[in-house]
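Sample log: NAD(P)-binding protein.
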Amino acid sequence: MVIPTSKPFDPLVDVDSLEGKHILITGVLIGTSGLGRSSLFALAFHQPAKIYFTGRNRDSANNIIKTLGQMYPDVNAEFIPTDHSRMSSMRQALQKILEGPFSRLDILMCNAGTMACPPTRTMEGYDIQFATNYMSHALAVNMLLPTMIKTQAEYNSDVRIVLLTSEAYMLHPLGGIDWENIKTNTKSKPLIRPSIDRFLPWGGEWMRYAQSQLANMLLALELSRRYPQIRSIAVMPASISDTNLIRTRSLANRMLIHAVEPVRSPEFGAMTQIWAAGSRKYELTNGGYYQAVGVEGWHVRKSRDVVLGARLWNWTATELGLKDS
């Protein structure tokens, strides 16, 4: 299937060889649909040596592994159970990967996400959308960077970090990130509600979502500056997809989503992230943001703000106890 854009893309033909490569995809929806699941099967077609994937349901994950084994018997798939909203769970999952026979990582696809949730605080005090969509992936990037840097140093390597985002990032708070409300505690603020909630009780959930998407774009930009040898790209799905992420939203939000753009299949929606993971490397601008398939997305001032990106990097390193490299 070729996607009708300015850059036609066929995932069966236009993906470079993945032979011998190791891939990690976060947030593979355990079920019959999902961008992560579609990406997993599309990349497996090109015979990588190993695919790790994270999610919550082990029984359903075993079914995915069984199906993969039948379709691509030479691809070794491993499921790592993870709750992406909890940094302790994410850290434990990553540590499990690192403690195994883990010697290389060629592609990290940061796919896990949630969207337009009511104001909710995680066990660790973070806005659930910011924790799931951004912080879990910032943690993954940091913990896996030494292996990715080592892999990139090998002959003919092409290591990539693919971070999912959305054009909804443009709805971000005025300053880009609502620093006062992305983390709180039960004594002072039991629920995280940026100031916009006072005026738009329904719209505030989209602002919280937007700042998490902006954060992923800033992370890609900052990674390209700090680690230019690795290609870090932010991508928006090729279309709004009929996945559990959409089906579990409120009626009002589902109506809004359907009004913005026709909802299409996850296989179609996953094309941009598959392209970013497997296309020819000369097609990618390090730190870039892409919509559709291979089409550079629109930027606003905050999405290119290197000062904001550096502040976010340093804040994240402090919050997660990471080395500020």
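Observation: The first strand starts at residue 22 and ends at 25.
Observation: DSSP finds ten helices and eight strands in the chain.
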